[in-house]
Amino acid sequence: MFETAELGQKISKEDYKKRVPTLREELLEAQTRLREAGIPVVVLFSGVDGAGKGATANLLNEWMDPHFLVTRAFGKPSEEEAERPEYWRFWRDLPAKGNIGIFLSAWYSNPLLSRAYGETTVGQFDQQLDRVNAFEKTLVDGGMLVVKFWMHLGKDAQEKRFKRLEKNKLNKWRVTDKDWQHWRMYADFHAASEHIIMRTSTGEAPWTIVEGEDERFRSLKVCEVLLDEIKRRLPDPSTPENGDRDGQGPVTAVSPVTVLSTLDMSKKLSDATYSSRLKALQSRRNKLHREAREQKISSIVVFEGWDAAGKGGAIRRMVAALDARDYQVIPISAPNDEERAHHYLWRFWRHLSRAGRVTVFDRSWYGRVLVERVEGFASEKEWRRAYSEINDFEQQLVDHGTVLSKFWVHISRDEQEARFKARAEVPYKRWKLTDEDWRNRESWDRYEIAVNDMIERTSTLTAPWNLIEGNDKKFSRIRVLETVCNNIEERLRRENGDAPKGEAGKQ
Amino acid sequence: MFETAELGQKISKEDYKKRVPTLREELLEAQTRLREAGIPVVVLFSGVDGAGKGATANLLNEWMDPHFLVTRAFGKPSEEEAERPEYWRFWRDLPAKGNIGIFLSAWYSNPLLSRAYGETTVGQFDQQLDRVNAFEKTLVDGGMLVVKFWMHLGKDAQEKRFKRLEKNKLNKWRVTDKDWQHWRMYADFHAASEHIIMRTSTGEAPWTIVEGEDERFRSLKVCEVLLDEIKRRLPDPSTPENGDRDGQGPVTAVSPVTVLSTLDMSKKLSDATYSSRLKALQSRRNKLHREAREQKISSIVVFEGWDAAGKGGAIRRMVAALDARDYQVIPISAPNDEERAHHYLWRFWRHLSRAGRVTVFDRSWYGRVLVERVEGFASEKEWRRAYSEINDFEQQLVDHGTVLSKFWVHISRDEQEARFKARAEVPYKRWKLTDEDWRNRESWDRYEIAVNDMIERTSTLTAPWNLIEGNDKKFSRIRVLETVCNNIEERLRRENGDAPKGEAGKQ
Q: Residue A248 has what pLDDT?
C-alpha cells in the first residue's frame, strides 16, 4: 500500500516556483466559492511523524484566507474534554458552513497509537474504526466535504529526517525520545496504519497517501488534490457530476514518478541459470503443492500486466509442475451474458475452486480498475468503490485460508513494441496480436496511472502485489515461480505452528 | 425496538379478502416492470422461529411469477460449501437482473446463532455484522434492491405458537427440541437480534420489523412493504425520487394499531398518594444525585411528547430536588443561525455538560424524525438516516457512562383538546397556546405514525424509550421521577460492583 509513497518523488525548485502562483490563486478562488456555496470542509492529516503533517497545515494557513480556516491539533484530552464522550471535542470544533477546518491526526490518533502499542485487540481496533466511519459518514451525509491525507515516510527516510533535524541546533528539540521509540516500532505502526487506511478509505471519505520526503512534492500534491476535491464538490453546471475526466481522477495529479517507473528493467538471467533454477523450482512447487493439497489449502494466483508481458508463458511454467486435475486456468475477457446479468464480482466468486486446488486467473477482478476504468466501461463512482470491494473480497479469501499471490508483470514500452512487431512477423504468433493491442498501447500513460493507483489502494499486508520485471522472460518466470513457492511455504509453516514441516509430517 | 411488534396486530378475514386481489395484481405487475428494468431483488427474511418466515416466503412464491423467483434456505454448509469462503454460497445464489431471490436467514443466521449461544464475543459479532454490511452495500451499489424483513414474536406468543402446533398431529413434527431450547434462551436471542437490527439497518438496506403472530397481518404487511420498495426503486417519472409522500414512507402501511394506542390512558393517582410519593421520590432523587455527582456520573433526560402533554410540569418536579448549579434545562426549538450552519446533531453535542451534572432536554434531537419529518423540514433521505445517527450518538453517551432516560409523554387527543381550551380561557396560560399548536393537532395522525416509527427504530436495550401515560398529570410526574431514580440507581449499583452502595461508601 505504501509502495507508491516510497518512490523518492521530487519536484525541482524551478518547477515548484512555476506552479505555485497559479495554485495559490486557484485555492483562494475555490475558498471563496466554498463560502458562497456554504459547504463546510474538513482537511485531515494523519500519518508518519516527520512526514510533514504540521508543515503542510501551516502552508495551507499561509496560502488560504485564514478568516475562514481553523487548524486543530488534539493532545491528551483536557479535564473538560475527558468528562465528555470521546468525540465531543471533535464535534465542538467542526467548521461551520463555508469554513475549512484543518485537523491534525484527530480521531485517528487514539486508534493508531493504542493499536501500535498493543493496547487494543484487533476487534477493539475495528470497533474504533467503525466509529470513525460512522462519524465521517454522518458528516458527509450532512453536506461536509472530508479530504484525508496520509503523510508517509519509509523507515529509512524517517531516520534520515530525524538525524537531519538533530544536527541542526535550532531544530534539535523537535526530535524527542518518543519519536525514536516510535521509529523503532516502525513495523507496528506500519501494520496499524495500513489497517486504518483499508478500513476507513470509504466512498465518502477516501485517503490520499502522500510521500512526505520532499517538501515541495508533498506541498504541491496536497494542494492539487485538495483543489481538485473542492472543485468536484462545488456545484458547477459545466462539470457534470462524476465527470470522468479521462478516467483518471485527481489521484496522481503531480506525481512525476509511478511505482512502475522505479523497477529495474535490466534484470535478466542466463540460459543456464534459468534452466537449472526452473527445474529446481518446479520440483519444489510440486512438493509444496502435494503438501498443500493434503492439508486442503487452496491457492489463487492472479496475473495482471501489459499486453505481451509474458503472462501466458509464466503461467505455463508454473502449472507445468501440477497435475491437470488439481488446477484450472481462468482466462478473463469481456463478461458473457449471464455474467453481465450479475454483479461484476459474481463471476470470480463462482470460479473459486474446492479445497486444496489451484486457480490461476489470467487477468482478473482488477479489470474493474484497469481496462474498465481507462476505457470508461465503469463509471468513476464504480471503479472508485471497487478498490474497497476488492480488498474486502481478497480479505475473505485470505481469512478462509487461501494462499493468494498477485502479480503485475511489467515490461517497458519499447519492449512491448518489439514484441508486437515480432508477433506480427511470426505467422503462428500473429493471432495473438489484435488491433486492440495497438490501441491499448496508445493509452499506455493512462493505464500506468491506473496501475499506480491500483497498487496504492490494493497492495495490502494480507494481499500484497508482486511487481515483476518482465523485459527478460526468463527472469520473470523464475521470479513468479519463486514467489508462489515462498507464499505456499510460508502458509504451510504457519499451519504447522512455525516449524517447517519435514517428511515426517506426512501421514 | 420490538415494542411495536408485540401489539397484537390483526387483520380480519373480511378485510384480508378485500385487499388481496388488488395486491396480487400489483405484485405481478411490479415483477414485470422489474424484469423490464433489469433490476435484481433480494428479499430476506430473518427473525424469531415460528414467526412465519417460511410461510411468507411460500406465499410470495404463490402470488408471484415463479419463473423469475428463487427461494433459498441455507442449512449447515455442505462439504462443497465449507471448502470455500463463507459467502461463496450466497454469491452463487444471487438473483440475476430482473429476478427475485428470497433468502431465508442466510448471512444473518450464523452471526445470530453464534452470538446467542455465546460462541462469539461482542467484538467478533460486530466484525461479522461489518462483513454483512459491506456485502449488502456491494450488492446495492451494484444495482440490487435489498428488502429485509425481521419477523418477530414475543416470548409468550412464541410459546403459544409452539404449543398450538404440538397439539395438531399433522404439525407436531415442526416443533423440535431445539425450538424449545431456543425459546428458553429467548433473552439471549432478543439481545442479539436487537444488536443485529441496530447495526445492519443501513440506509442501503434497512430492516422492517413485522409482527408475526397473525398470519393475515404479516402477509399483508410484507407484501405491501415489498411492493412499496419495488415501486420506489423502479424508474418512474411520475414519482419523483425520494418523493415525500406526506413524510410517511412505507413503514406502517397496514398497521391499524400503533404502540401509543395500546397505552392504558385511564391510569391515575389520588391527590394524597401523589403528595406522599412525590415527597419520597424527590428526597430519593436528591440522595441519588449527590452520590452520582460525587462519582462524576452524568445524567441526560430527554422529554418528547404531544403539545400540552405536561412535559414542563414533569421537568419542574424532577429538577426541584436538585441544586441549580448542578443541572440545566435546554429547551429545543428551531435552530439559530450558528446552529443552522452546522450538522443538526452539533447543537446537542455542544450542550453536553461536564461530569456529574444533569442535562434535561425539553424536546431534543428527535425533532429530526418528528416535527422535521412531518412538516417536511427534513427530506425523507435525511430523516431516514437520522435513526441510525441518533442510535450511534446515544450509544456514545451511554458508552461514556452517562445515564440516559428518554420519555415520550402521551395524552389522548381529547385530553389535548380539553387542555388547549383550558389554556385559552385562563389569561396567564394563554401565552402557552399558539396557532401552531392547533395546526399541529391537525397532523395528529401523521405524528402518531412518526412516533411509532421512532420507537421502533430507536428504542434500544441501551437507550429504551419510556412511554408515559399522561392524561393524569400526577400519575405521569410520578412515573417520570421514579424512572429517572431507577435508572440512576441501577447505574450506581453497576458502578459499585452490583452491591448497593450504602452511607459507608461516602468519604
A: 40
B289 residue type, one letter? H
CA-wise closest residue to B145 among B221, B71, B235, B219: B235
Size of chain A in residues: 507
Task: State pLDDT tens for residues B234-291.
Answer: 876 554 444 443 434 444 445 667 778 778 888 999 999 999 999 999 999 999 999 9
Each residue's pLDDT tens digit, B424-463: 887 777 777 777 777 777 888 899 989 988 998 898 888 8
Which of A94, A346, A399 lies at the smallest CB-CB distance from B343? A94
Q: Does residue B85 surpass a pLDDT of 90?
A: no
Which residues on chain A are in Cβ contact (under 8 Å) with B296? 83
- Main-chain phi, psi angles of A162, to 5 degrees: -60, -45
What pairing do the DSSP bridges indicate for beta strands A41-47 and A145-152? parallel
List the single residue in B with minimal CA-CA distance to A347. Answer: B92
Q: Are residues B388 and B295 in the same domain?
A: yes
Task: Show the domain range for A253.
Answer: 3-257
What's at A271, amino acid-wise? D
ipTM of predicted complex? 0.71
CATH number at residue B340: 3.40.50.300
Domain boundary among A230, A257, A284: A257
Inter-chain residue contact B355 with A83, CB threshold 8 Å: yes
| Residues on chain A touching B399 (C-beta within 8 angstroms) | 85
Of A222, A257, A292, the last residue of a domain is A257
Beta bridge partners of A405: A301
Count: domains in chain A: 2
Question: Same domain, yes or no, for A275 and A342?
Answer: yes
Q: How far apart are CA B78 and CA B212, in angstroms?
A: 30
Is this model's pTM higher than 0.90 or not? no
CA distances from A194 to A108, A199, A207, A326, B351 (A): 12, 9, 11, 34, 36
Q: How close A77 comes to chain B (CA, Å)?
A: 13
A446 near A342, Cβ under 8 Å? no
